[in-house]
Structures
1.
Amino acid sequence: MSSQLLLFAEPLLRDGLARLLTAQGSLYTAVESPQQLRGLPQLVIWQVNSPINPPVLAQELQSLQERWRPAPLLLLLPTGHGLDNEVLLQLPAAGVLEAPNPQELLEAVATLLAGGRVLAVAMGEAPGIGTPSPPTGPTLGLGQWLLISGLQQIDADIDAIRRLLTPPPTNLVQLLVLQGRLRELAAARQLLLLLWGPASMAWSSPAPTPQPSQPVLAITLQQRSADGIWRAIRERLEAGTEGGLNNHSGQLLALEGLSGERRRDLLRALLHQVDDLRQRFLTDPAPLQPLQERWERWQPELRQQALRSLVNPYVQLPREGSLEPVADSLIRSSDLVSRDPELPDAQAMLASLVRAQPLLVDGQLLAADEPRAVLHLELLLANWLVRTADLVSAEVLASCGSWPELRRYLLQPDLLATRNLERLRNQLNAQQRWSSWVLRPINLYESRRQLFCLRDGAIRCQELTEPRDGELRQLGWLQQLVTLSLETRDALAPQVQGLLKGLGDLVVLLLTRVLGRAIGLVGRGIAQGMGRSLSRS
């Protein structure tokens, strides 16, 4: 049985959508008005063709959802719609697509009918609603204008006749005439589309002037369950690990010391280990035990397995005259038990990835399949991924310091020299001490947390504001001195500013009223004396 798809769009766009969907055989039935429905629709598609105010758009979407529930809603937006990313992420629609091509639209329809979610919009701030961007494409030609105006006139006549047929007239002749006129208008509409409205013209607007490509925010959930959320996040993170992964975080990372291929292998191995760990959570005989405790207990084993995956277990390299297995030697010489204090509590992240529990994002409790929740989960997991990979990489660099043959196998070519490797390790140690003694107390006192993310083929840093009072109370005396100095500065800043302002006013008074007046009197006396001398001469 085919799925009923209810379409809301302007006549030309609606016809293009209907022809595209009905061309898929018996999969879909495109319904152009609610009166043609047989029961409830399986999907509602609304195509917006002009900029619209965000509150009005959200209200209309909410009304459509309430009217056609439980059918999901797919919103199609044009290029230059004027909505920023924050608004798009909060729209109450199961699917949001910006200027999709036919293949993307068909894939989104299949995903939504299967119970998933779809979001694909251009990233970045768009022009405001009050000042929409001017059209860049050519104006409509005569044939297109005649087609659009003809379709609008026919649709107006069809709507008028349908109003006359609701309720049907009692006069049989009048009823037959109205039904015949309705069939004539439908046939004329089909003939008009056949002659002047090919599918390509009805589907897309005139070709715009080529513009530079923008990054696209695309989230596709095949299912709204924890499995679907995890698969979507894993695919996005795996795509983020492709390429060189340049470091744009503003911090020096031990991960940079690994070669590009090893760096990617380590991140992929950690993702694979998280997948295995998640399966353990699902099959664990003690489901009531907090996920955070089990997560912390399995971290050393997870890092060991990732390190073992980084190096082929059969690879042996010479060391002091004998061959030695690389993987076992690295695991024996590495400290993989230590914990990164900058990692946030993983309980909320794990509860959403394992049990699909709601997540608190920016003070709002969101369902785990909401786009904002998915992006927040991706941020938390990417931060753990980069920090754990950096910890493992630091241990690899330490082992390479005493094993020169290992450098060529794992590290960047410029780190083959002992001086370069030791300089990198010293810089990392100095950065770690400065971060532990100064930067971390400041971040704790200001309730800030630096999170790493994978975006645009690079490692970047994103700041998150959250209460960290518990961590602040656990600081040592040296770190507490830093926070005490900040508190003292905040307490004394108004008094010092008042004192400096008073001193400044006093200096201005002395310069203008006292010293300036004295200089003026002296100058006046000199001028008068010169005047007398000139008059005598």
2.
Amino acid sequence: MNWFRPLSIKKKLTLFFLVFFCIPFLIIGVIWYNKTTQTIENSAVYYNAQWIRQLNKRLDEYFARIKLDTQTLPGDPRIQQFVKYDPSDAYSLYLLKSEISQEIYPKIAYGNNEFAGFYMYSVKGAVLGDQIANRLGVDIRDSVEPDESFKVIGIQKVGGVPVVMVQRSIFDNITFGFAGAMIYAFSLDRLLDMDDGRKPGEDDHIAIIDTANHQFLYHSDFAKWGEEVPGVWREQMRETSGYFIDRTAEEHKIIVYETSKATGMTLLSEVPMNQLVGTLPNLRMITAIVGLIILALAFITFNKILLEVKRLVEVIHLSRIEHKDMELKQREARLQALQSQINPHFLYNSLEIINSYAIEAKVRPISQMTVMLAGMFRYSASDPRHPVPLREEIHHIRNYLRIQQERYEQLRFDIAVEEKDLDQVQLFRMILQPIIENVIIHAYENHGLHPGEVLIAGQAEDSCFKLQVIDKGRGMDPGTMAKFNKAFASEDVESAGKTIRQIGLWNVHSRLRLAFGPPYGLHILHSGEEGTCFEVRLPYRPADEINTWS
């Protein structure tokens, strides 16, 4: 056999294909696969680390806000009275519990969508809690640290739902000794819900580890709750944050973790490697085989590779978009945290201090105004979406008018509403105040008059209660009055509101009309040089139907 004779064209083409295409193609394919896998791995580590960091910050900021919102509760007189009560005084303790449940508990739950339950106890044996306390797996009092004023004490499953338990210790304001504790439960699923399209528990997992005991406090796979962290993981997790690849199992995983300085717990993410590389190993083998067979199939394989690269680029691009979304949500959370620092209790406490000074100085008008102003703030800060009895609104407007009398010496008012109607009429908060303000400004001050008489009168007629606000100032011209009444009578509330400039009056009318429907809302009975009469039409229920109100 002569190896040096000239090669045929077929052999030359075959040799050319092998030397200049197949071998380089295989080499480039192997290098490309390794580099691509490494790039994807690095990208996954980076974005999962960012995700874990953002999630940890969110939890830390949330617990910081809870700590700030609840820091004044242990000093509340009713809480202090609770921890000092003897449980044997069942009746007095029952009354105090009712007061706490009606006035303090709503302040804890309102505005916290993650709030799941509340439990409080004293060292003397008094206990107060909602239903969640009866469904906990262990006695949460065993986990309380008396020396800790605020602490995240653990995570438990309640009805198949994970909740995180937060302790706020109560210290006696006289002896300064540990007197009890308040335990708050928050839904961990809602705290971990980042709304970013990721769903831990399907392809990847989220876990929270008790760093001291090396146990899973939480895992998106419920079967691992309470299990010990693998020893290989503990060896790798010596730093406060980082990542490693777990190759001990058949399915390799990328583990990204970070320990919170605020809670001491470690947040961890598990991402399977095959989820990242997808079909890249199969593509490598297919590409090599196709490259050895014919050039045409190599071209098809090349197109497949391009499509796969495009898919991976889109995945990375989406990850970057998710990262930007998390940054925006973090900024929004910071803004909300700053806004939540404006604690209404600070205002109430300040007014109480002013009242105390006024009492000590024997300045009765200042003391009365302070008490009335505190009551107004407390009333206006309550939930505006739920109806209240007319009695509460009348009490509020009486305080408002008394304060206005300190400013306008000639202001006189009278409220003529029958006692039986005060609890049978429902309306929303802050309905009368805008009308009274409108009277003072437009009926008196704008005409150079000192605010004078204001009469509030009510009359029940079948299913409608008519509450009238009457003044003795200057009224409006007939055209303006007709324009108002036409807007008030319109069924298209949104369109009619565009023709009214008095925003306060229109807000009152639209709230009543949208909630109760026609014919309820505002109506002007008459208006002229002798004064104006506004009529507020409200639903009326007999005494035996009061409990049907929602």
3.
Amino acid sequence: MPCKGDRVTDRSTLDLSSRDPDWWRQAVVYQVYPRSFADADGDGLGDLRGITRRLTHLAALGVDALWMSPFYPSELADGGYDVADPRDVDPRLGTLDDFDALVAEAHRLGLKVIVDIVPNHSSHQHAWFQEALRAGPGSAARDRYVFRDGRGEHGELPPTDWQSVFGGSAWQRVPDGQWYLHLFAPEQPDLNWENQEVRADHRTTLRFWSDRGVDGFRVDVAHALVKDLSEPLRDLGRPELSREEALTALPPGTHPFYDRDDVHEIYRDWRKILDAYQPPRMAVAEAWVPGARRALYARPDELGQAFNFEYLQARWEAGELRQVITDSLATARAAGASATWVLSNHDVIRHASRLMLPPDTDLNAWLLSGGRAPAVDEAAGLRRARAATLLMLALPGSAYLYQGEELGLPEVADLPTEVLQDPIWEQTGHVRKGRDGCRVPLPWTTAGPSYGFGPGGAWLPQPPGFAGYAVEAQDGVEGSTLELYRTALRLRRKLLDGEELTWAANAPDGVLQFDRGEGWRCVTNLTASAVALPAGEVLLSSAPLENGRLGPDTTVWLGR
């Protein structure tokens, strides 16, 4: 049902919601984590009908599209990214008819729909993997995955020193003695993209969802599909290196399983399929690679856009942010794409908490401390998060919002260990706490067993403080974070003009200032003191001005 105060309009005539093939270039996309958005049937797990009932919230917010994380059949070994059938809906979340109803309602409200596609791996429950286990070594069924004999006298050692992103070896042994590759959880065996059946099946999946009205795809782990499987498989030599360190330690395109040059022929093939629809389906790559390499995924004949995580990872420091913004715009321009900006998602600590942590903070240690070492001032964190968001929304390109950030939700860092669901916790032997703190179900009302998330409880416990962040608590309240987002998105749509910005030559130290065309400018104060405002009409401010001056951790939009 609509939330109290939702101001819903049919936006089907608006430019970004029309058949414009470039609607995505400066769109605002809202990420829905289905299991934590809204629960219609009361089982404690979010579902598709819950999302459909709350689409009016997104329309009133003013976003252009929603992106849904996986809703496919899954045992939830990795929050739904272990997909047992990529062309169906998990029965706990609904049916294909429910999905069709969701798309129809989204389109009625003028919202585009983007879905996750997970091509690097499947669930171990996938029919193909179960067939591979039965078929045995050397079979055609096993060739769809990456099976190898082990090393050692009896094959008792993993084939290589490759490590899983979630900790430990990236190889799992099966009863007949062979090992299979899993760059993530053991329940997520990697597919073999040298196999033509694998390629054909993913073409079918792209068409399946496009035919059902999906407007685009977010490609999970886009940089990891192609591996160097030539024999003998080669060790990395330094398995302790992080993903980022390993990529920079080797010549570009030569890592054995990340960001290999051959991956791009796959996306050129996909682009032909996506362009066969009218309007063409968009796609965005999740590719954790350096900027120059990321641009390759965003080329017009490939996916067209790629997530830029540098802004998310940047410190709250003017010089660093300016450099990240400048480099990101240049990278996107070189690819013929538009830039992307994101502050939070389902894999990282929410920015209302993260931005307040000292730059040298061990984030995992902070989570293990329950968010108490160091403690985060929630009010100060929210002020900084609002400033960072208004800065992001002023930048040229697409902004990706994560559910609940429009409410100013902080990270729930103090979840008891006995309720944790993220496989990282178990796979690392209780060393890394994981990502559950940003996945706690949303609060819609100020009371009830799950603050309006559903008629019953929630699959992860919500803290009592969530009541104050609920949609009901903020709707129509002047100065609330929800109303700030609504106003910012409404203004942004009116103000957009081109995909360029011009930095001010005379901005004070610690202040970011740039113009967007002839119509408006953005000023962000990252210092500890109030600063004078340049000339212009105040259109929107992330916090009240201080005697006409721009206070610390505040962003303002000025008309020129």
